[in-house]
Amino acid sequence: MPRKYFKGLKGTDDIWEVRVQHGNNIFRILGFLDDKDLVILNHAFTKKSQKIPQKEINNAETRKIQYFKQKVLK
Prior knowledge:
Layout lengths: L6 E2 L7 E7 L2 E10 L3 E9 L7 H20 L1
């Protein structure tokens, strides 16, 4: 997927956002990069405001940490 669809979130541990519109609904999908070519999308929610709630960012960052911990164990 071209990088133009991703927006880096300031103040995060390299978390990126993808916005998807389906009908009248707008979804935000948060994720991160694993190496250069692998995108891990790990948290999605319905967009209700311009600003992303901190709890949604925290969920994505927690899942990122869990992902890399499990990857090291394999």
